[in-house]
Design a protein that fits this description.
Length: about 250
């Protein structure tokens, strides 16, 4: 299992939200460039960037984020307000390694069908697309977690799999930003339902013990943000863990 450091950007600042609440944003005195350099210099090759403005339909951050991405060798997993097939292609062409799609996939039933045909090939979606599932008490949330979907969680997973999408970024909103532990029970349910999905866990991770708990249930990777900024998990611990993971893989 690989640890992916998270960087959330709001108004060009590095922040972390609590339960997705924009009014509860903690702003950190560090730039996106500095965070990427810190991770890269410590041997991490993958970073997760979410444009929180973009998640609300405001794309004022995007040029800034893409200019930073173009000047790094890091692999970037990027999400926030991706609403069209053209935008997915644009981001891939700009050098984004993985694109995270969320709200549009939930609200527009045709989007995933079109994306599968346009980007993912005939049989199975490429490694370039991650389907975000943001979950509050097993209800799928979207539009910056402000809206609820009537679609049942497992039905949605099945539909994505049928279209060839196999990698999911699941955020347990109940856990997010609280440093209270990962949503292991939720991830177990998803993996019990579909054992072969590639699951990226997000939300609530507060210690290396949480990391080990996620490894035990065989999630593919996990996204860690606030625990790093607040000093609960060090960059050196991530480097050591990821190196051992790559060796064992």
């Amino acid at each position: 299992m690989y640890i992916i450091p998270a960087i959330d950007i709001l108004d060009k600042k590095v922040v972390r939200l609590r339960e997705g609440n924009y009014e509860q944003a903690t702003i950190y005195d560090v730039s996106l460039e500095e965070m990427i350099e810190k991770y890269q210099s410590n041997g991490t090759e993958f970073v997760h960037i979410i444009d929180l403005n973009g998640a609300k339909g405001d794309f004022s951050n995007q040029d800034y984020v893409l200019s930073v991405v173009r000047n790094t060798e890091m692999k970037v997993q990027y999400g926030g307000g991706i609403r069209s097939i053209e935008k997915v292609k644009e981001l891939i062409d700009a050098g984004i390694h993985r694109i995270v799609v969320g709200t549009q996939a939930i609200t527009n039933p045709e989007f995933l069908d079109e994306l599968s045909k346009a980007v993912c090939g005939k049989d199975q979606c490429s490694d370039q697309v991650v389907v975000a599932i943001d979950v509050l008490d097993e209800i799928i949330k979207y539009s910056g977690w402000m809206e609820s979907s009537p679609v049942k969680l497992m039905d949605y997973v099945d539909r994505c799999l049928n279209l060839g999408f196999f990698r999911f970024l699941c955020t347990d909103i109940n856990k997010d930003g609280k440093l209270g532990g990962a949503g292991v029970d939720l991830y177990k349910k998803l993996l019990n339902h579909s054992p072969f999905i590639k699951l990226i866990a997000s939300g609530g991770i507060s210690s290396m013990d949480d990391i080990r708990a996620l490894q035990e249930i065989k999630v593919e990777s996990c996204v860690v943000g606030k625990a790093i900024y607040e000093g609960h998990i060090t960059v050196e611990e991530i480097q050591d863990w990821n190196l051992k993971s790559l060796i064992s893989f």
